[in-house]
Amino acid sequence: MTSNANRIKQLLRRRVLENITPLKMLEAYGACMSCRLLEQEGRWGVLLLLPTSVFPYDAKTYPDATHSVFLAGTDEELLGQLVDELPFERPLVFKVQRPEYETLLRERLPLERKRAFHTYSIRIERLIVSPNGNVPEERQLNESLLPLWMANGYTREELLAMFAGGARSYTLYEWGMPASTCLTFPNYGDVWEIGAVHTTEAHRGKGLAAQVVTTAAASLLAEGRIPRYHVEEGNTASIKLADKLGFTHEVELAHWYYDGKRI
After folding, report:
1. Which domains can be identified in the chain, with CATH numbers?
2. Which residues are within 8 A (CB) of 139 and not within 5 positions of it... i.e. 6 or more apart?
3. Cβ proximity of 59 and 53 under 8 Å
4. For position 263, what pLDDT does the model report?
5. Closest to 138 measured CA to CA, from 90, 174, 166, 170
6. Where do the N-acetyltransferase domain residues begin and end (predicted)?
7. What number of CA atoms fall less than 13 Å from residue 219's CA on the CB side?
8. Cβ distance 231 to 118 under 8 Å?
């Protein structure tokens, strides 16, 4: 497939939160990706292929698949042409952010839904819980907080890299000990993640997570950033927190598995 990565990024940025995953993959792994763009009279369609072996999450989660596939565009006919070029003899994972893309794919292929992730964001006028002035922002990695973030699945190496790239932490302390914390870190362009939300067991049910997340979001908004709160569909506590704080659901990214057998 031919590559026109700069033009593809320009088109995807028109809906940056909707297309944040393919944009981030292009930024991080663009040299390894196959990119295809069709444009006709203002209509466009994009198809991206990323080898699963390149992205650690995919390599671990979908070891039998050869590629992850991303679609985006404004025209069903163009997208259909792109999909019909795919190597259907291989197992693939489709990461789908719009219902119409799912419909287009399911008309052509037998697919199995594996999981989905939800993206939330917020504007300053929608903040329901006021930021807490007692939640300090820390721009250096605080060793005392590592166990809390690592309990959420992050490794020490990942956290060190995040702070080297500009991450910040927001933490409420009780008697000098961390009670609830979260991180913000750059994702793509002006989009920053709010993640690693963790409240120690003794302090759960007190609304502390709401305070640290709201403070983190307010800080990002004050700097002109776009907060992104990314949640796996089974994480009901985090979804309830997003709703409670006034976050708006922006997109669902569903993972659909194709086993390489059309019949």
Report:
1. 5-118+253-258 (3.40.630), 123-246 (3.40.630.30)
2. 163, 166, 167, 168
3. yes
4. 64
5. 170
6. 122-263
7. 24
8. yes
Enter the pTM of the model: 0.92
The type of residue at 129 is V
Determine what percent of the chain is predicted with pLDDT higher than 90: 93
Tell me the C-alpha distance between 173 and 111, whole Å: 47
For 130-147, the pLDDT digits (tens) are 777 889 999 999 999 999
Take residue 97 and report the two structure tokens written for it.
């952010």
Tell me the pLDDT tens digit for each residue of 117-132.
999 999 988 887 777 7
Give the angle 208-231-69 at the CA atoms, nearest 5°.
Answer: 160
Backbone angles phi, psi at 158, to 5 degrees: -65, -45
Query: What distance in Å separates the CA atoms of residue 45 and residue 132, rounded to the nearest whole number?
Result: 44
